[in-house]
């Protein structure tokens, strides 16, 4: 579904449901279904399979037969960490990065709930805001969606605080998904991610950017205001474009290097791209289950500088 049309839907649960159903629909049409695109929790029904394993609720939604594994085989804990800092409020389209990120988090929560997984949520800016423990009981999804729907007036960004908090309070191995624009200093990011990986957590970073942040469009001299610090910057179009693109690439390369070093997956999307693509990235990353990085790589001091969103 076109994200512009999707974001006009006010109900967050309906948005997430449409994305997931669209993803399942695309999967049915894919000639790779059952090969490189395959869920660990579901597979297509084949003659001879025990019909007691059929997921009739999923059949009612998709009109296709799927065999599900039992809960004790697939039970997994997923922690969604959602950046609600001020830079996420930026948007050159009809909606902001925050709107897109919340919809993406709701989509993942809905998708994982369908698979009987435990899902938790943590929102943050400079500090941790809301925390919803990972559970799978009835009504839990509504609690997560209500939390995501809550208005926020985020400030700066501290990427390390939520990662360290999850590592400290989560004993059981699980999946940690960080949804953020990642426009923040990354000096301690590798150590925080390495701590999670050393405890056998899978880590997936879903980076959400506005198209204007990838290809900056400044056509005349003007004053820009940093959304998180309030700092005003007088910019010249040509000089700013060149220096910005250099800094942006260096920051992106630094993030990729950090994730490679610790064995985390990172995907970047812009807010004009269909959310099904990010859901597909999430499924693909989880299927690969990255191998833990070496101790030297995980505890090394790689870091890349970054600044606040503007």
From TrEMBL:
<dbReference type="InterPro" id="IPR036465">
    <property type="entry name" value="vWFA_dom_sf"/>
</dbReference>
<dbReference type="InterPro" id="IPR002881">
    <property type="entry name" value="DUF58"/>
</dbReference>
<dbReference type="InterPro" id="IPR002035">
    <property type="entry name" value="VWF_A"/>
</dbReference>
<dbReference type="Pfam" id="PF01882">
    <property type="entry name" value="DUF58"/>
</dbReference>
<protein>
    <submittedName>
        <fullName>DUF58 domain-containing protein</fullName>
    </submittedName>
</protein>
<feature type="domain" description="VWFA">
    <location>
        <begin position="75"/>
        <end position="250"/>
    </location>
</feature>
